Amino acid sequence: MVIIATMEMYGGWITFCPEWLVMNYNLDLSTFMYKWVYLVFFNILWVFIPLYACYVGISDMNDAYAVRAKVNAAKKSK
């Protein structure tokens, strides 16, 4: 899940950010709907959802490592 979410964020970066940085003339930012709804809001979703997926995945991995460390410590103490 972490790998897929990271790839999704990278894909969003290489797809949309170069267009913004070079001020592509095909981007129509003249209206509120195009700029804030289509460009900003819908693209922000492709950032926050993968960030949340990374957070959940990394938290789960940390929990699994903590459980493994406790099991290994219990085995060593016997």
How would you describe what is shown here?
This protein has 78 residues and is an all-alpha fold. It has one domain. It has two helices and no strands. The protein has helices spanning 2-21, 32-77. Helix 1 (2-21) runs antiparallel to helix 2. The protein is rod-shaped and about 70 Å long. The two termini are 36 Å apart. The model has no long low-confidence stretch (mean pLDDT 91).
Salient structural properties:
EXPERA domain-containing protein, cholestenol delta-isomerase activity, 0% strand, mainly alpha, 2 helices, 78 residues, membrane, EBP
Binned, the helix content reads over 70%
In terms of DSSP E residues, the strand content is: under 5%
What is the typical, i.e. mean, pLDDT?
A: 91
Whole-number tally of structural domains: 1
Radius of gyration: 20 Å
So how many helices?
A: 2
Shape: rod-shaped
Q: Multimeric state of these chains?
A: single chain
Compute the separation of the termini in Å. 36 Å
Overall structural class, as computed from helix and strand content, comes to mainly alpha
State the major sheet. Answer: none
Order of helices and strands: HH
Q: Uncertain spans, ≥5 residues at pLDDT below 50? A: none
User: How many beta strands in the DSSP annotation?
Assistant: 0
Membrane topology: Multi-pass membrane protein
Subcellular location: Membrane
Transmembrane segments: 36-58
Main location: membrane
